[in-house]
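On clarity, I found the account of how folds are encoded harder to follow than it need be. For illustration, here is how one protein appears when written out as sequence plus structure tokens.
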Amino acid sequence: MSHGKILVEKRQVSMERYFDINEQGCSIRSKLYCADPAAVKRVALYCHGFGSYKETKSAETFAHRIIAKWKGTAVIAFDWPCHGADARKSLLLEDCDTYLRIVVEYAKQRFEVEDVYAYGASFGGYLLLKYLSEHGNPFRKVALRCPALAMYDTLTSSIIGEDDLRKIESGKVVLVGFDRQVKVSKHFLDNLREFDVREREYFDFADDILIVHGTADELVSFEASKEFADANVIELVAVEGADHRFHDPKKMDTALACIIDFFMK
């Protein structure tokens, strides 16, 4: 039965195309998934995590599932600055904001739609929350999987080693990451420390946000997401035993089902 489902999803996604969004001095490496470009009614953005990229298995699976289940949906996955195939050398939060704004505007204009949805994982979730707080909400709905609410703490306590932290404090740039090594500077860390999403209020957007978090997350605290969701009256779905990357396919299936159902409500 599972093999049949995969075949159906593959048939539904008749187009997978790489393209660049060249606007305002930026060249945003992107990938489009859709069944029929002429029949798009809504666009969902996939925002990957730190040190990741647009072609992850989770991006592809999300795109296939939502397109198969919700006719007229297109998915755009894109690389954040300094990630994947992006050509920038320095990672800056302001550049991340610019990329997100440009991709949202492109999606609306290219497909002539009003409804744009966003799905962000980890660092992608942090950047979505930062954008909402600073610029308002351009999305119909936003889903966050294991959002790195305390992104500064996550990097400095779990990802960057003590030797590299000392180098950064002395003004040097170090390589950090998973799928691609990203250059991290003191300026970037200082900006992360200055913008803690837990200190912001999201009541105005609460009805349009869903958080899905694994209870066995080894990088980002599940309890932090629970406290944040409770404080802002945001719906939280706990996936028992899921780690940060949702390596267990069944647990990822649960997360995606919740996200897609939330989008379709």
Summary: The mean pLDDT is 93.
